[in-house]
Write a structure and sequence with these properties.
The protein is of the alpha+beta class. The protein has one domain: Winged helix-like DNA-binding domain superfamily/Winged helix DNA-binding domain (Arc Repressor Mutant, subunit A, Orthogonal Bundle), CATH 1.10.10.10. 46% of the residues lie in helices and 14% in strands. β1 and β2 form a beta hairpin. The N terminus is likely disordered. The chain binds zinc ion (2 copies).
């Protein structure tokens, strides 16, 4: 990986530009089309809240942000929308935080599994790819007669922005 790509993974502003957000909404819409599923208004609204930031977002944050905008929903509606977004693969669930983030690598190789880098200080999230680590997990698991179910690997740490900040 080049230094240029590494830099872009953690932009200094956690906010996604309007243009990028529009683009990721378009891609999400396409992903739903490809699976013959409907990208309903609610699914789109929930996706926009999650995709509007580089950080991971909890279901209750989504609920609160939509309420601020005048859309009051029952938690179950938000969870159902989140389930649909997860199924199509446009968002991922961060197990360690029970939070969600928009997939930033929709144009990557289909079926490849990401390594998720998650900053413990600012909650920024980035995805990188390395099949090697999954091959190792599969191999050592099978050696232990264990069937692994690993969709991605989470790595907790400190992003470049937080590392450069003085406390
Ligand atoms: Zn992804
Ligand atoms: Zn950070």
């Amino acid at each position: 990986m080049t230094e240029g790509i590494a830099k872009n993974l953690f932009p200094s502003s956690g906010i996604i530009s309007e243009r990028r957000l529009t683009k990721s909404v378009e891609r999400a819409c396409q992903a739903f089309d490809e699976k013959n599923l409907r990208f309903t208004k609610l699914r789109r609204e929930v996706f926009e809240e999650i995709a509007a930031t580089h950080n991971s977002v909890g279901a209750y944050d989504v609920l609160a942000r939509l309420a601020e905008k005048g859309t009051r929903l029952a938690p179950i509606s938000v969870y159902r929308a989140i389930d649909a977004l997860l199924e199509v693969g446009v968002i991922h669930r961060l197990e360690s935080k029970n939070a969600y983030f928009a997939c930033r690598r929709l144009d990557h190789t289909p079926g490849s599994r990401p390594i998720v880098l998650s900053c413990e200080k600012c909650n920024a999230v980035a995805e990188v790819e390395s099949e090697g680590i999954f091959e190792t997990i599969d191999r050592v698991s099978k050696g232990a007669s264990f069937e692994p179910r690993v969709r991605f690997v989470e790595v907790l740490g400190t992003c470049r922005n937080c590392a450069s900040k003085k406390d």
